[in-house]
Records
---
Amino acid sequence: MKKVSESQLFELEAHLAGTLKPVTPPSELVQRMRSRIRFPQPKEINWQIGNWRRLFVVYGSVMSGLLVTITVARAFFYFFRRDI
Amino acid sequence: MPDTEFNEEDVLTRASQGDRDAFGQLYERYIDRIFNYVYYRTGNLHDAEDLTARVFQRAMNHIKNYTDRGVPFSAWLYRIAHNLVANWHRDRSRRQEIPINDVPILPSKGDHPERNLVHSQEQEALLRLIRRLPSERQNLLILKFVENMSNAEIGSIMGRSEGAVKSLYHRTLLALRDQLGDQNINLDND
């Protein structure tokens, strides 16, 4: 059985520490991965929320307008039908 | 994001309820660590990118099933990464091997590029030996040196006791030292 030299192991640990260092993934790689995973950026989320609100208001306005128009048309038809 | 503003429990709860912004915060917090782990396990920048993205895709798809059983979220992510890397090695062993010598060494945090060049031959020799170790021992070395984790933290990720990790670490060092001797690789002192 080989006799374990502590100094050899310390030396090996030092080399491991010098070799296995944290690396920084390039920022474009992080962005590319982010887009692959497809979760939106915070700015994009804000834009999407704002956009949904805007769409809701537009949809609501159109529907309300349509209801008013139909009601007026029905009323007009009800009151003046006999005269036409 | 500074740690003081990051409440992982809260972010995890929101992420598990389908909040993608919350998952984005988890991504920002763990991307470097998972990338480092995958990079050192594959030794290949392109595959590291691909596998890291897949780790987070899988995590996002399954985060609803994540339950805190005293194991940190990072351990859950590392296990996903470990499984994907194991699959990658299995698939790769069926195909043509790519020489590991062609792998570029990315600059380390806070390291001077010239210093990297001087040490690259020695580092490559040591990295080749590390990559021949069983995957469990590779994991241990990466978590200890790259992630700077304690034996207890490593144990929580690997599902082993602190003592078992310490013992495995010692046996790994001995195995590496023997392999260096067998292959006449001399690691010069700085």
---
Amino acid sequence: MKKTTWRKATVLAAGAAMLLGMAGLALAEDTIKVGVVGPRTGSAAATGTAFDEGIALALERINAKGGVLGKKLEVVFEDTAGDPQKAASGLEKLITKDKVVMAMGESHSSAALAEIDVADRYKLPLIIAEAWHDDITKKNIKYVFRAGPSNSGVVDDAILGFIKANGFKRVAIVAENTDWGLGIKDLAEAGLKAAGVATEVFITERQSQDHYTELNKIKNFKPDLVLAFVYGFGVHYLIAQSNEVGLVPQTALLLEGAGPPSLWPDFWKNVGDAGNLELFVSSMHKDVMLTPVAKEFQDAYVKKFGKEPTDYKSRSMFNTLLIAADAINRGGSTDPDKLVEALEKTDLTVCSGQVKFGTEKGSYRYHQWQPPMLIIQWQDKKQVVVYPKEAATGQLQKK
Amino acid sequence: MSTRHAKVPSARQELLPWLAVLALFLTLPAWLGEYWLGSAIVGLFYVMMAASWNLLAGFTGQVSFAHAAFAGVGAYTSGILAVKLGLHPLLGVPVGVAAAALLSLGLGALCIRMGGIYLSLTTLAFSEILRLVINNEYEITRGTMGLKVPFILGDYSKATAFYLMLAAAAAVLLVIRWLLKSDLGLMFRAVQNDEVAADSLGVPVTRIRVTAFVISGAMAGLAGGLYGHYLTLITPHIPSLDLMFLVLAMAVIGGMGTFAGPVVGALFLEVLAEYIRVWGEFHVLIFSLVALGFARFLPGGIVGLATAWLTRRPARSGKGGAA
Amino acid sequence: MNDLLMYLTNGVVIGIIYALSALGVSLIVGIMNVVNFAHGELYILAGYFSAIFASALGLGPIPAMVVAVAAIFVLGLLMEWTLIRPTYGDDMYSLIITFILSIILQNAYLFIFGPYPQKPPNWTSGASNLFGLFFYGNQRLACLGVAVGVIAGFFLLLHKTWFGRVVRAVSMDREVASMLGVNPVRVNLLAFGLGCALAGAAGVILTPIFPVTPTVGVGVSLTAFVVVVLGGMGSFSGCVVGGLILGLVENLGSAYLDSGYKHMFGFVILILVLFFRPAGLFGQKQL
């Protein structure tokens, strides 16, 4: 009997140890932590890699200049995989377990929309980098900022302008059934209708691999431009298959409305020659240096990674971290409300221009800064900027 | 496989450790940090799910893959009612439970007769159909974008959610325990051990199985409804095969066919998940390897191991051959 | 009319490949009464192998495919020996084990191969103008040809070889077969290996069109199960017919009805079959 009781005690002790482990002890550290949320898995996992690159370069730059408030800046990255549930729980973990003072990033609108509520609940400043849905800033949550494109900005400034400037008359819109896809589709459709362009909408799944059925319907519509709002590998298959059925670029051009999928390393492998003459949105091009910081980023990137940067999301994350560090330093504290005040007063030069956040409530422009977007076309595997005219490095090719 | 000889605790002194655990849990919100309290809530969700799944698989021999789907039914029913009709979650969750019970009645009646493989495949098909419907009808369910729903009760507070989940989990476990001790429980085991013999003795085999199916499904609906309103965001993650796998792994690792097994498995794996979280994407891989190890070599699970060690009976390991 | 022909063609191509994949499941179910949940994961693994062998080892697409399938066959033998054999007679146990195995493999693939889709290079490129009415990818046509060849090969194996005769005997009545001197353990081993190899074959054929990622296996497994149930457990010709029916229903359904529900048709068919005619179209097995 004694042995049994002793054993029972051991089991109880083990359980207690487990519980104590849960109570957790936080060690004081000599760093200031910020959280980054983004997709490391899922259909846009390559964006996670791009984010990592931006983070590495930004941390080098920031910590070389003295860090933040005299301490080193540290980043904790939480994978959200484009899933709103993972995003919410991931951000909560960053706040409650890692005790970050600020969070930033995200590339999926559905995830971002979940994150802004968590940020509001815990009063944590959150800077969204690359999630475009208008509602993210339209909800006017005090702690949420966006240092990246918004759907309205992209559609109004870049896409509609491009379509009107080049006289496209019939546009087929393919959109993924996510917050971003449906949101930007609505705006594009409305804008095109207002401009008198014939449009038809086709909804698809982000990870769908077989598009023959949809492409057939699209062909019957006889478009001269296909707008593809699919942020994932699915768009590679869409392009390859649209080539097989004789649509792109034989009778229509394709504009990929997210950007990164056309820049991922596997693009040419998956798409083959069908990728020639494909158009996409981007906020970065090596011949378009809007500020000296852009040049510094380019040089640092080449030096560290041994190749030229192609995915603009890496630069976007770089920008965002600079903004965050700047706000912490200017505000002089990590108190959330002081950080919000400091962010609102931002006037910083980053790669894509001068950052100033809107402060007027009532629209999506609240706490929003819209970087300029470019429309780029692949011509013989080279990136050529075709819109806007001021930044163009070449002419649009149609066949 | 040991589940053919399902063990059920018999003596009243078995209740004592449970009361001790309950007492401990009642104190958790006082000293457990915000983060770990959140984990505890999720752990309680899985306790309900694993225990109710085990009722079906461990005690009546039916491996259902629709369990997570029923949790999803509970969550989405309650969530949609809250969003569209403004129904308070405390009223919506019971409706969700009813919906889950109804659907499990239908599904059970459909496939119970087939047994074995066919049952598993049908439940799998049902689970996938539900997922597809949720994804496609995003106008109502918001699909993969997630449905934002109100918090379960009052202002957001992890302590509130914790006590509600604790109450629900305790209720679920009490019901299961009462069932297993009752005549119904006896018939469950009869049906599981030898269907033909049970049938010949007048046990209404089909009705017994359907009953188990419905009770199990209703419990999943309860767990899902509460969980959804705790997260305040309902996504297809709840009725997903990934979640289904976790539930299965917890029951297997904890010990199928035992009462304490799913509870131990759920809590153990939930805590383990937090520690392995550093390796992010790989924690499921580790779980699944552990689960395979247990399924293949230690079918009694942790509880089986602990029981053998505590009472010095040789631990069951491996599987001799055909049953 | 062009559209309809295109959908029909697509349905046949996809359907034949579904049939090939289902043959693997049917073989294992028929011989061992085991449902291999990891079926889809083996399909994917073959796809990954063919991509890697083609690029890393510089093998041509055809040798890469053959080596990949052979590797899967060996893996199948290993699986049977270590995991399945101890579960004979206990259906639930083998279900659970293969289900857990499928999750392990999915996550292992994420770990080993990364999240990006992989595919071997196309064997052929461009498109043909079919019947002079519409364009169809050449690669898809080539896949159709190879798949038909493999299926034909399987039926040859079934009807002309000793192994095939044993398989048919055991499918029909396991007890009698063993009484007549068939060694059940060895048959199981080979059958499982062959079943996995068939999954692998479907994988290497389809990967050039649909690149593999760690998670597409679930869909493959489910489709195979639907086809097997539809065709009738234990019937191989049922697999072919069932596969074609599913492929056609899916493509026509998504073309003329809602394409979002493309994959639901299969499950609805499954439930209808189980409800009205559980033995399937050509089923021999008793429930």
